[in-house]
């Protein structure tokens, strides 16, 4: 569950320096990026997550994939599967063959992956931080910051492809010294989805223990 929460945290708590303003250049890039994803019926992304903490000498790598359609998503990562149909959320843990069922109630500081591309529009500041080359292509770098100073994350650095306006990677910096890096390795626009994609079918998980927390 902690690994899942770490992933969800990638979509919230954006921060940069306290002096950051609403940068028009950054805003234009973010609007173009957001429009790109909102125009898709659905998409699927394969990613890697790297957790680093220099003081604690920690470096951990995880991989996974996520399918998103509107407010719905299906996430697979490190023996866990999280399915959200917009109202109900199922968290399946393979090692225990157990699924927790709960009402989906997104927290302001732990927003679902389906909102990452529009979150900047409310409650966040953004600032253009420069350009770089990543994976052989130019990217624009944007820092985002939450207006809530109590947020445990102090900076997220988002990298957007200059030509296709697609999110290539992002880094999330937490006040406890943890640094998360997410890189998209494969991306499928308009991924095929149906009524079963965002619902948990226990008949496909033999002997699964269902814990209803609603």
UniProtKB/TrEMBL annotation:
<feature type="signal peptide">
    <location>
        <begin position="1"/>
        <end position="20"/>
    </location>
</feature>
<dbReference type="InterPro" id="IPR029046">
    <property type="entry name" value="LolA/LolB/LppX"/>
</dbReference>
<dbReference type="InterPro" id="IPR004564">
    <property type="entry name" value="OM_lipoprot_carrier_LolA-like"/>
</dbReference>
<dbReference type="Pfam" id="PF03548">
    <property type="entry name" value="LolA"/>
</dbReference>
<keyword id="KW-0732">Signal</keyword>
<keyword id="KW-0449">Lipoprotein</keyword>
<protein>
    <submittedName>
        <fullName>Outer membrane lipoprotein-sorting protein</fullName>
    </submittedName>
</protein>
């Amino acid at each position: 569950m902690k690994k899942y929460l770490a992933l969800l945290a990638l979509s919230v708590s954006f921060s940069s320096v306290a002096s950051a303003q609403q940068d028009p250049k950054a805003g234009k890039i973010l609007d173009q990026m957001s429009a790109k994803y909102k125009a898709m019926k659905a998409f699927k992304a394969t990613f890697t997550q790297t957790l680093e903490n220099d003081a604690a000498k920690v470096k951990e790598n995880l991989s996974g994939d996520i399918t998103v359609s509107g407010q719905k998503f299906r996430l697979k990562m490190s023996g866990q599967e999280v399915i959200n149909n917009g109202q109900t959320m199922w968290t399946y843990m393979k090692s225990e063959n157990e699924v927790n069922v709960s009402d989906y109630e997104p927290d302001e500081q732990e927003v679902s992956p389906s909102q990452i591309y529009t979150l900047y529009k409310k409650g966040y500041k953004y600032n253009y931080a420069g350009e770089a080359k990543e994976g052989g292509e130019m990217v624009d770098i944007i820092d985002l910051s939450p207006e809530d100073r109590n947020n445990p994350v102090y900076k997220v650095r988002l990298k957007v492809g200059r030509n296709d306006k697609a999110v290539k990677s992002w880094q999330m910096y937490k006040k406890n010294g943890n640094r998360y890096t997410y890189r998209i390795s494969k991306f499928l626009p308009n991924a095929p989805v149906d009524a079963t994609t965002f619902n948990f079918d226990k008949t496909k998980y033999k002997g699964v223990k269902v814990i209803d927390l609603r």
